[in-house]
UniProtKB/TrEMBL annotation:
Annotated source species: Lentinula edodes
Any Gene Ontology biological process: regulation of transcription by RNA polymerase II
Entry protein name: Cyclin-like protein
Single annotated GO MF: cyclin-dependent protein serine/threonine kinase regulator activity
Transmembrane regions listed in the UniProt entry: none
Gene3D superfamilies to which the protein is assigned, alphabetical: Cyclin-like
Amino acid sequence: MEGTYSPSQLPASSIKYHHSYFTPAEVEIMSEKQRGKMTVTQEDKIRQNACGFIDAIGSRIGFPRRTIATGQSLYHRFHLFFPRKDFNFHDVALAALYVSTKMHDTLKKPRELLAASYAIRFPDLLSKSKSPFGEVDIDTVDPQNMTDNGCLPWNV
């Protein structure tokens, strides 16, 4: 048998090469595959909203530009493999920014990112906030107001 090898004849290890970058053609193919029935303009609008959201949170907290840019890149990379219609862009953007803070050692607690995101997403809560600094305190947010608007991602 020519094609069979005993375990002692197999190489001890093998090397796999992965490319961390995609060519423009690969990006287009992957984007088209994940886009589904969305138009290109709808996809661009969601992408711009998500990048603006990441930028606003990062600027509000005081992250370096490198951390913000990496968060935006992670957001785009995520959607090369997962369709946009299956995920809320706020959730993916926050997760991408959080991973970016870990990568660049600009550590913030997830609670701080959530508080900043609520301040950006729901500016009307700032006026009701008891904090003298104009920050949204997640502990004092009325869950009934949030669920009425369909804003909380979890069941309260």
